[in-house]
Design goal:
With 292 residues, the chain is α+β, with helices and mostly antiparallel strands. Helix content is 35%, strand content 16%. The protein has one domain. Helix 4 runs antiparallel to helix 5. Bound molecules: iron/sulfur cluster (2 copies). The site of one iron/sulfur cluster has 14 residues, from helix 7 and helix 8.
Length: 292
């Protein structure tokens, strides 16, 4: 089943118009081929997330129930995490950028939201067509963003649970294809094969946490939002706002609209365009630097 899902996703990533930049930016792909990983619904890590992230972070079973799907044992649920790596074209342009991100990245980051939603909807349909049921944390009624800078379904934590990578000094997830990625996930009762974590240590792929070296992400950050103690979300968010204002002025006419559910209220926001200087030109951009 894992192989079939991966083939379905590789085909979707290569054919979908939603995975394309506008022609004026070359019309190339936003994401190269995906990686997938699978966690078990009864993995105790999902309960631990209620302590580590917030009691408001949902377990897969809670999302399942909110989605009004028939009752099922936790052990029969599988959580499919999908890593979407940005293409080399976007990365090469972004490495050269200073102060403001490369336009190609801002557009790719903005368009990626619609594609991610489509990936989740089409993957749910894929499972349904095979006779199974499926839902997605981010698409469910339970999905909320909270003002303390967390959400009720953290895709990075789901990817960690599915053995796809670990956390880092810049607070991204370093996967085998690096940290310059986006992530989405599906919960299903399909018999997917679990891909176990190599370790429960949440930081093994980061050179700083594993060997005390690197800190390249800290040097790249224009907002001084990273230091040896980690990532300052407030400073990061403030710089991202400046970028949003500038890039929306420049690119607003071609950016896609965006809304979010913040503490239960649907809010239309300026299209997000990202920052991610800390992810470009660093050892963990496109690989796991600890695997070398
Ligand atoms: S750039 Fe280096 S220190 Fe920063 S997250 Fe990547 S591996 Fe860790
Ligand atoms: S996203 Fe931008 S502001 Fe935030 S930590 Fe990375 S480089 Fe700094």
């Amino acid at each position: 089943m894992n192989r079939m899902v991966r083939e379905f996703l590789v085909d979707l990533f290569s054919k979908s118009d939603l995975n394309r930049l506008p022609e004026s930016y070359g019309g190339g792909r936003i994401f190269s081929n995906p990686l997938i990983g699978v966690a078990r619904g009864d993995d105790l890590i999902f309960n631990k997330y209620k302590e580590i992230i917030s009691p408001k972070h949902l377990t897969p079973k809670e999302v399942w129930n909110i989605s009004k799907l028939p009752d099922i044992e936790n052990s029969s649920l599988r959580i499919l995490s999908i890593i979407c790596p940005f293409t080399n074209q976007i990365r090469e342009e972004s490495i050269k950028a200073k102060r403001m991100p490369a336009e190609i990245y801002s557009i790719g980051r903005n368009y990626a939201n619609a594609f991610k939603t489509d990936i989740m909807k089409q993957t749910i349909e894929f499972f349904q067509n095979k006779g199974f049921q499926a839902t997605a944390g981010m698409l469910s009624e339970g999905f909320n963003i909270y003002r303390g800078f967390f959400s009720s379904w953290s895709e990075r934590h789901i990817a960690f649970a599915a053995g796809l990578g670990t956390f880092s000094l810049h607070e991204g997830l370093i996967s085998e294809v690096g940290c310059n990625i986006r992530i989405c996930s599906i919960i299903s009762n399909a018999p997917l094969e679990v891909t176990p974590r190599k370790s429960d240590d949440p930081y093994t792929n980061c050179l700083y946490y594993s060997k005390g070296i690197c800190r390249e992400c800290e040097k790249k950050c224009p907002a001084e939002a990273i230091n040896e103690n980690g990532h300052d979300k407030k400073k990061c968010r403030a710089y991202a706002r400046k970028i949003e204002v500038e890039m929306n002025k420049r690119l607003g006419s071609i950016l896609k609209p965006h809304w979010r559910r913040i503490e239960g209220e649907v809010v239309t926001q300026k299209p997000p365009v990202g920052c991610a200087f800390c992810q470009y030109g660093v050892p963990c951009m496109d690989k796991n630097p600890m695997a070398m």
